């Protein structure tokens, strides 16, 4: 799928294609968890007929609702909003899981996904030094090159820093809660988790 983000770039947007490339064929209902002002939700809507986007930040939701699209923006807490279990074909989340208890968030996403549906997460975890120093230095270098070429868009949503969970802890959590998931650590201080819920 072609990504259209209005020329904006940052470390989160850089990995939107990882999310969009995981959308299963024939998906009818999608959920964007921690949607912010809705960029990813609007990109998802190009492939999925019905997209719901939820966030706790009222200002971000208002920005999303100002766009002329048919994404269903919800101001609320993803962890306790009364979604129907197993009701989404694809659930996506970028840079939101560290805003909540990670294990609780992953389990909730798993439960809201239909059998055969796909969960696609891009998140932030905490570096541990000196073990992660090569990753940190490489990310600084590559990030500087991208910013020089593309500029840097500062999103308007709240920031949580530092992330509470390390990369190894996140990998272990994903393996426990989402057996068979594909976990990858990425250069620009992000990880991704892609998981297809088993049928039956």
From TrEMBL:
<keyword id="KW-0808">Transferase</keyword>
<dbReference type="GO" id="GO:0008757">
    <property type="term" value="F:S-adenosylmethionine-dependent methyltransferase activity"/>
</dbReference>
<feature type="domain" description="Methyltransferase type 11">
    <location>
        <begin position="31"/>
        <end position="120"/>
    </location>
</feature>
<dbReference type="InterPro" id="IPR051052">
    <property type="entry name" value="Diverse_substrate_MTase"/>
</dbReference>
<keyword id="KW-0489">Methyltransferase</keyword>
<comment type="similarity">
    <text>Belongs to the methyltransferase superfamily.</text>
</comment>
<dbReference type="GO" id="GO:0032259">
    <property type="term" value="P:methylation"/>
</dbReference>
<dbReference type="Pfam" id="PF08241">
    <property type="entry name" value="Methyltransf_11"/>
</dbReference>
<dbReference type="InterPro" id="IPR013216">
    <property type="entry name" value="Methyltransf_11"/>
</dbReference>
<protein>
    <recommendedName>
        <fullName>Methyltransferase type 11 domain-containing protein</fullName>
    </recommendedName>
</protein>
<dbReference type="InterPro" id="IPR029063">
    <property type="entry name" value="SAM-dependent_MTases_sf"/>
</dbReference>
């Amino acid at each position: 799928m072609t990504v259209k983000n209005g020329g904006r770039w940052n470390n989160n947007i850089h990995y939107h294609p990882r999310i969009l490339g995981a959308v299963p064929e024939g998906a009818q209902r999608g959920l964007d968890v921690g949607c912010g002002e809705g960029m990813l939700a609007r990109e998802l809507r190009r492939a999925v007929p019905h997209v719901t986007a939820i966030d706790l930040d009222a200002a971000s939701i208002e920005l999303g609702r100002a766009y002329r699209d048919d994404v269903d923006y919800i101001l609320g807490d993803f962890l306790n909003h009364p979604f129907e279990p197993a009701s989404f074909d694809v659930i996506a989340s970028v840079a939101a899981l560290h805003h909540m208890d990670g294990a609780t968030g992953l389990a909730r996403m798993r439960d809201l996904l239909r059998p055969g549906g796909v969960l696609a997460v891009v998140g932030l975890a905490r570096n541990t030094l000196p073990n992660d120093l090569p990753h940190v230095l490489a990310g600084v270098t590559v990030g500087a090159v991208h910013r020089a070429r593309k500029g840097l868009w500062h999103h308007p949503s709240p920031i949580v820093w530092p992330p509470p969970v390390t990369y190894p802890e996140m990998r272990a959590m994903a393996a426990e809660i989402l057996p068979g998931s594909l976990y990858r650590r990425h250069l620009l201080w992000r990880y991704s988790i892609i998981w297809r819920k088993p049928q039956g």
